[in-house]
């Protein structure tokens, strides 16, 4: 696991945007794994800005999102499909049929999970997976305690995750109880993982993810076993790391080399 610490959130976002852009420059046919959530908003804004400047072309790349709420139609403004359309899909030249999210309204959700897994395999797997982390250490919607080898499945959301998501809905009773999520095993098969965490409220869980033992009580710790995982943090999110590292500006290194940061 490599950890890149930037002094503030905007600089951490710039690193992620630069790493995704470099992946697309290197391989215009890349399969990107995408995440949603507040942490990702500025990442998509950065990618859209590069596209508008003519610096990025999404026309040949394919995308798979980590998760989708069960029971929400893709046109529901709270669905992750709608989120992706707002933040990325409608703003760049991604081909709609090259973008994939699980269908949370499928009549047979188990069959839908299998279809999603098989589609990822058929397209050769995910080259670069973007990740955020929940306050309870979830990745995608793999809630603790979780099976660290799981495949795409239906997950019951924890009370903490539902509380975290309530502000995005019109009331607590509107927050879905279940979601389809790629499993930890699916995520760990991605060629490369990039996890972004910003803000002091993530500091405790980030320290557990990086420095704690691998445990199904903190799903994100499984990323320690991935051969090519980079965690990008702002200084507040890095505040609880015991092996403290002075904030450094890795911008130049990120542009120049594929592996910025320190290794654990
Ligand atoms: C959503 C996802 C989640 C979020 C996590 C952090 O697709 O994968 O694991 O990354 O809940 O959410 P924010 O960024 O809103 O704190």
Q: What percentage of amino acids are in beta strands? A: 15-25%
Helix content: 25-40%
Morphology call: globular
Distinct ligands: fructose -6-phosphate
Rg, alpha carbons = 17 Å
**Average residue pLDDT:** 92
Distance between the termini: 5 Å
Strand element count: 11
Q: Which class do the helix and strand fractions yield?
A: alpha/beta
Sketch the major β-sheet. Answer: 8 strands, mixed
User: Could you spell the SSE succession in H and E letters?
Assistant: EHEHEEHEHEEHEHEHEHE
Low-confidence stretches: 246-264
- Biggest sheet, spatial arrangement of strands: 5-3-2-6-9-10-1-11
Count of runs of 4 or more consecutive helical residues? 8
What is shown here, in short?
By secondary structure, the chain is an alpha/beta fold. It is 30% helix and 17% strand. Fructose -6-phosphate binds next to loops.
């Amino acid at each position: 696991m490599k950890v890149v610490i930037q002094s503030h959130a905007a600089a951490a976002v710039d690193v992620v945007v630069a790493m995704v852009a470099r992946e697309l420059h290197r391989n215009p046919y890349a399969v990107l794994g995408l995440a949603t959530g507040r942490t990702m908003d500025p990442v998509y804004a950065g990618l859209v800005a590069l596209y508008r400047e003519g610096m990025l072309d999404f026309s040949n790349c394919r995308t798979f999102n980590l998760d989708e709420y069960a029971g929400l139609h893709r046109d529901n403004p709270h669905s992750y499909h709608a989120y992706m359309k707002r933040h990325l899909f409608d703003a760049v030249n991604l081909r709609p049929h090259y973008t994939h999210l699980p269908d949370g309204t499928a009549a047979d959700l188990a069959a839908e999970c299998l279809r999603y897994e098989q589609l990822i395999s058929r397209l050769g797997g995910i080259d670069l997976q973007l990740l955020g982390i929940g306050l309870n250490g979830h990745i995608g919607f793999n809630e603790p305690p979780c099976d660290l080898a799981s495949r795409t499945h239906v997950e019951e959301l924890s009370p903490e995750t539902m509380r975290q998501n309530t502000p995005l809905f019109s009331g607590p009773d509107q927050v879905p109880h279940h979601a389809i999520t790629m499993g930890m095993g699916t995520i760990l098969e991605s060629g490369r993982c990039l996890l972004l965490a910003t803000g002091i409220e993530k500091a405790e869980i980030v320290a557990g993810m990086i420095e704690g033992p691998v445990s199904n009580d903190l799903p994100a710790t499984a990323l320690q076993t991935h051969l090519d995982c980079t965690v990008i943090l702002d200084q507040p999110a890095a505040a609880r790391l015991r092996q403290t590292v002075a904030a450094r500006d890795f911008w130049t290194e990120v542009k120049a080399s594929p592996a910025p940061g320190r290794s654990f």
